[in-house]
Specification:
Layout lengths: L1 H23 L20 E3 L3 E8 L4 E9 L7 E6 L4 E5 L9 E8 L5 E11 L6 E10 L1
Parallel strand pairs: 2-8
Antiparallel strand pairs: 1-3, 3-6, 4-7, 5-6, 7-8
Length: 143
Amino acid sequence: MKKIILSILVCVPIAIGIASIVVAQQPLASNAKPSSEFTNDLGSFTWAETSFDFGKIKVKAPVTHEFSFINGGDSPLVITSVQASCGCTVAKYSKDPISPGSSGYVTATYDAARVGMFTKTITVNANTGSGAVVLTVKGEVVE
């Protein structure tokens, strides 16, 4: 008798778990569109350049470079975030949506605190669907 009760106590929760998984699987609504019918509401970056070499620069003398781009997509391009790799680099960017065919910018200002070679990155996220774009500035800081 104990074996029967033990078997029921083990089997019932398993059966309930399986039944809840089967019930949770719902079919797609009949009005759902196939993925091929969705519109592409994305912008597209066309960069003039994604890397810039400042060459030799003086220590504690900030330098700036503007990276420009054109929205090559069919919808307005919206930059959602711009992030520099360290506190020594400050980035500014086009805040308003960039219409298809229009241009925008990301400006990088590097303030060198010590002598030596440097490479810094600026990561740009937008509604492009192609992931983040990484811009690079580099150079050599001299006395």
